[in-house]
What does this fold into?
Amino acid sequence: MAGKPVESSVFVGVEDLRGEGTDVVLDRVVNEFGATGVTVAAAYHRARDLTPHGSPRVTIRHDGVHFIPDDDLFGGLRLQPPVQRGANEHPLRSLREATTERGVALSGWTVFCHNTTLGEANPDCTIENAFGERGSPADLCPSHPDVRAYALALGRNVARLEVDEVVAESLHFGTFDHGYHHERCFVTLGGIDRFLLGLCFCMFCTDFAKQRGVDAETARVVCQQSLAAVLDGGAPSSDKVSPEGVAIYGGSVLADYTTSRVQSVTELATVVSEAVTEAGSRLAFLDGTGAVKGYAGGTPGGRLAADDAWQLGVDPAGLGQHVPAYSVLAYARDTARARDDVAAYRAALGGKPQLRVVLRPFLPDTESAAHLAAKVAAVIDAGADAVDFYHYGLAPLNDLRRIPVALQALRDSETRGDEPR
It folds into this structure.
């Protein structure tokens, strides 16, 4: 590997390219930062972002796709992707041409089951909690047949944009804490309480569980009773969320119900991956567990992310048999924690899928170029095959300039033949 560039990509939004200019962004990402690829948001969700070096300085992003959907894929489907402003200018086609000229890879960052616009227009396609309420309009249910048809078409369409890889975000269940925007909760909830509030009991999830021998209706009642107790003033649950903890808290039937949805996500990801491959690209499943645990403060606690992925319906070991690439978010200030998280994923996945690790070169995760270099080296030693960086538009330029220092330090280490740490 001596002298070979470390495979890496920088996440970027179409709005960032439009505001600063595609050539300016690519010059920085490729020539200055030394990345070998760009991961562009082909289908994204609504957000308000402070974009410190962009134009504008505050960027509003919307639900939807940055391309014109193909009629042969979406014609007749109930769920139609909202189309972003400027999609008729074909920004992704232009970016593909520019990256090809520069000889760098292009990945299509695709958000599947997190879309407030679609959820509000089609509430029956969203998560239904144990009380029968549609309280998470941003989260589409991966078990719903209309959502599955939408995900399949979306994956195929992004692959048709001639991207080298489709990076699949939210191709799994969401959580109660991220089901909407501007959320408020003044009830003291334990970790298991929050997890149970995010469980879906729609007819498709319950039917899926029943087909696997789970008493879904009893599981719903148990979940209702457990949540009602704390909402009515009882003591919150433990913060230590695990399948064993759920079984202690709500009985084996509730624990069985939570594990049944893992198979639903594996099935969906498998068919989307196959469709992406048929369309000439490949799928990188983006496991959101690292963001759930460390996004806000860079201090993930408790069990390693690979051990808690089941809370999103994600089984790394199972998915590793069906997807060519698996991407994890090592959102952690502590280098040892990032290393341990990656090592656990590598062990669960085995040697088959490529393991990509996403790092943030800015606070709260990273405080210096040396700090970032240490984490890059640590995750590579732990089994990562590639290191990606989030997010061009959100980070100050001085923080982004830590990337080439970290990548060069890794190349120098490989050239010297340093032993893994």
